[in-house]
Amino acid sequence: MSRADYFDAALTRPVPEGTLAASVTNHFQQAGLSADVLDPNVKASYLNEFLAGAEFQVAPSMSVGLRYIRRRIPRVLEDVQPYPLVACDYGTLTGNDELTQACSVDYVLTNPSASTPVLGGLGASFEDPIHHYDAVEFTADKRFSNRWSMQGSYRWSRLWGNYEGFYRDDNGQSDPGITSLFDFPTNDPSYTALGAQFGYRGDIRFLGSAGAGPLPLDRPHQAKLFANYAFPMGLNLGGGVTATSGRPLTALAANPSYASAGEIPETPRGQGFLTADGFRTRAPFQYDTNLHADYSFRVGGNRRIVLLADVFNLLNTQRIYDYNNWTESSFGASNPDFGQPYSAVLGLPAYQTPRQLRIGARVDF
After folding, report:
1. Could you give the CA distance from residue 201 to residue 181 in angstroms, rounded to a whole number?
2. CA 20 to 30 Å from 359, out of 14, 74, 149, 314?
3. Please, what is the Cα angle at 46 between 40 and 48, to 5 degrees?
């Protein structure tokens, strides 16, 4: 991690070390610059999955099914450092040599849990990771016969906890095993008790069990329907309709040590925030309709020419799929796009892709 303070927004005038500004005198932090130290007892992450279901044939070529899916991640692999996040700033301000060790500490690749040791004496502790997925799914399958086929499903699911996995979908961090989720102890009252004087926003406890809730990929309702019909003259028509719940919304402040945006929750997960369309806890419900057509004709022997056409987003739906959930663009700098229909992760307006048409041809032989 690294953080530097500057007098100007253009970042041309760094604040000298030892100068009292914004209640601190340490204005250049560097920690974890070397490779992670490996815990000699570290073990691989793993996932448990239980699936039970049944399928019944209710008519010739037609079957329906019901299944239950349960997934848990009992052990995760992440890097940690043993000091509360406020330790470096507070130690520098108070002259506490023990706490200032956090300004240059190394990170350890381990299996973080409630038993992971914490230094500094500020009453902080790590917590057990939570990743719970439960789903019930209904399916219907009409195998191709009498010139048509159909597949459909509805799934109710719940993805809940405080740990997403190797990828952080809420801020786009793709650092398997070294995300920022467990870099600091999460059960840490000193973050708000001491951090406010340094401009800290949010509450790191909402990264832990106190903020456990719907994870960014949680989609409670998902429905899909696909069908096609083959005409005798060689024309095949197909279509698909999908519908899904919008993503849960959680406001995220910047990390005070890294200065990176989208790190520290301002509320428990999924509690929402004020958007350009009013207060919302989820992005709007999403749905899409696509069509496909192909026509084939023989050109001699076993050779065929197939003409194809696909229409994506037939209804030209342009619903909002996300709102900018970063309250700060960097530590101490408010984000002017917070709450707007804009993906902070992708850096693009967060609307469904407009209607698209694709045509093509294929030769089979």
Report:
1. 16
2. 149
3. 145
CB atoms within 10 A of CB 30: 11
* Token pair recorded at residue 68: 């239950």
Sorted by where each begins, the domain ranges of the chain are: 2-364
CA torsion 12→17→21→23, rounded to 10°?
140
Is 336 exposed, middle or buried (CB count within 10 Å of its CB: 0-12, 13-18, 19+)?
exposed
Mean pLDDT of the chain: 91
pTM: 0.85
- Kindly state the tokens that stand for 294: 């192909």
Residue 108's contacts (CB-CB under 8 Å, 6 or more residues apart) are 36, 37, 38, 39, 79, 80, 81, 82
Give the span between the Cα atoms of 110 and 41, in whole angstroms: 8
For residue 331, the one-letter residue type is F
Of the candidates 308, 145, 139, which has an alpha carbon nearest to the alpha carbon of residue 229? 145
